[in-house]
Amino acid sequence: MKLHYLRGRHGGRVATFATATPIANSITEAHVMQRYLRPDLLEAAEVLDFDAWAATFGQTVTEVELSPDGGRFRLKSRFARFHNVPELLRMWHVSGDIKTAEDLQLPTPDLAVRDDGTRAPQTVVIAPTPQLLAYVADLADRADLVAARRVDPDVDNMLKVSGDGRRAALDLRLVDDQPPPGESKVDIAAEQIATIWAQHRDDEFLDATGAPHPVRGSLQIVFCDLSTPNPARWNVYDELREQLVARGVPRAGIRFAHEPRNDQEKGELFAAARTGQVAVLIGSTEKMGVGTNVQARAVALHHLDCPWRPADLQQRDGRILRQGNQHPEVQIIRYVTERSFDAFSWQTVARKAQFIAQVMRGRLDVREITDIGDSALSFNEVKALSTGNPLLLDKAAADSELSRLERLERSHAQARTRLRDTATNHSRTISTLERHIDALQTAIAARRDTRGDQFSMTIAGRTYDGRVDAGHALVQHLLQALHRPGPGTELPGLAELGGLTLSATTTRNHLQHGYAITIDPVVGVPGTTVDGSVAQLAEAKPTGLILRLENRLADLDRSHAQTVASIDQHYDETARALTQADKPFTHADALAQARRKVADLDAALDELVAPPAPPDGHPAADGEPPRTDAAPSVAPHAVSVPDRARAGGAVTAAPPREPRHPAAAAAAVLPSPRPGVSAPSETTRESPPEPRPLPQPVRRDTQPLAQPRGAHRS
User: Fold this and answer.
1) Cα 18 from Cα 51, distance rounded (Å)
2) DSSP type of residue 295
3) 457-459/368-369 β-pairing
4) Domain locations along the chain
């Protein structure tokens, strides 16, 4: 509304937006940004309304994904592909000048090399406890009941299921007062943080003057959104601090971003983190996201949970991958509980990051874009690791390789296009130079010698034999034309010198006030024009202008030789460009193989969501089409990931479970939404070939927590 008002008063350009995340979470933001900045383009294209915009540029894509409970697969159609991309991006880039981190090449630290040899965030996979698996099973029952509308939304809904699932993946104590047996995510994170603290407690840093700072020690940043410090109840923040203190980290060096009560105290806390007085800074994305400047000593960043938006994850990582960090390498560690809601959380971020990458990294020479950026692939890797299903990790690796090869193919196609454009430009230049050759030859043939006493020049119909008189006359004619009102004057055929006709043009505006004299046969040929300003003309000697014109006539031979040489050079460049453009893509076979592999894995994943065979005694009704939905209304019809992993390649129907949640218990007495269909018996069917085992960077099994020496826990 404000921008509309300003445009009505001041015209079209009334605002400039500067943001690192023009699209942070949803496809609607691309349309909203265009509505803010260039609604006239949307209106001209008749896509000002979002429905029209989405119908023109968007496309729904059906893919296999994990259900929210993290234990089953389903088919889901989402708005995640774009067609008519050239038209979309042309409108987008009229108002948006996008520069990615790869474009800017800022001096930020590198990510440490992982065990697999890649520089990427490290994923710590935490084995689930039996209590967590039971709770996840309860989430599945609750989700089925909500989907079947067998429970009142005020009692239970998918928002509650999602919230409970995310909190349980972080720590069961957030949803259940009973402490989990064995190691929890907090325990493992505390061990990792304490180990890094011990390794870097004596790191030396430089102050603003370049001298060694008297305080040593690196900083670690910990992000946790699903819990907040609260002395009245158990929370992750206080528990993590106690765990770190028990492992030797000084209590005074562990600070919460929630402590400051105002901006001044917040600035003092961040200053303490930069000067080594804070060893571990724990906070949420909101408290430590945009504007947090603590990177000087940051050596590691820990994600205890997954934010809901790719932009939030980008802001988190930006606290350590930032200019001014004195570490050459840093670690980003993501803690993921296997077979929990973590899988769905990372999957959601991956889907959103995929969409954003398509818009930010799209190209004008394709009609559709579906490729995934590097950050999205990293999220998919986390999703695969957290499910415990090797097939998904194979899919993530295959997608990564396919994305790499498709980037190479696009680069090759772009290079071929550029080379062909280069050859075309050279051909056009050759045609222009050949016309220059003809003009120069004509001028040279008509030219006569004006050296010494042979000088003769005609100006405005009057012939002059002396250079001084001719100079005065020529200057006077030019000055008269320059002082005439108007933007400029054309003086065709003003003079004749050495057998060639000379024309003049004057220009008068706020940028230029001067003249240009051209030799008519070679107009446009470089190096054949005499020009200058009105001030230079008034101050110069009269003979100076005549000598410059005689030099131009004498230089026609040199211009001819240079033009001939330039034509030969452009012919060579044209041949070289066409030769390079005809070279085939060297990785074409590998790309075809990668596409086949991804297609095979997609087919294997599709089998995981195929509907189970009808149980004995309940054949499918005649004419009833097979069901393809991936979210059955009753839990026994779903495929369980743990069952498949233990069945040696066979998919086993999950046995019925006793509902544990009050909403599930209340709905247990309701009639089935599909009368006449009983629970299927335990059956198995043929599954895809067994994929390779899961290569896990860090694997923590559930074992009783070993107390550090000298530590005491109540």
Assistant:
1) 27
2) G
3) unpaired
4) 109-127+185-335, 446-578
Q: Mark 179-202 as b/e (b = at least 16 C-beta within 10 Å).
A: ebebbbbbbbbbbbbbebbeebbe
- Whose CA is closest to 349, among 319, 304, 316, 306? 306
CA 414 to CA 581: how far, in whole Å?
A: 10
Tokens of 214: 């008297």
**Rounded to two decimals, what is the model's pTM?**
0.53
Structural element, H or E, at residue 1: none
Helix pair angle (588-608, 390-446), 10° resolution: 150
CA dist., res. 228 & res. 215, Å (int): 30
Place of tokens 């809904």: 157
CA gap 249, 191 in Å, rounded = 11
| Percent of the chain residues past pLDDT 90, beyond the cut | 20
Tokens of 574: 């044209």
Where does the pLDDT of residue 25 fall: very low under 50, low under 70, confident under 90, or very high at 90 and above? low
Fold of the CATH domain 109-127+185-335: Rossmann fold (3.40.50)
What is the rounded (10 degree) CA torsion for 575, 580, 582, 585? 180
Within 217-302, residue ranges assigned H as helices are: 236-246, 263-274, 285-288
Instruction: Tell me the sheet residues that pair with 610.
Output: none
Per residue in 443-465, pLDDT (tens digit) is 898 888 888 888 889 988 889 98
DSSP string, 411-479: HHHHHHHHHHHHHHHHHHHHHHHHHHHHHHHHHHHH----SGGG--EEETTEEESSHHHHHHHHHHHHH
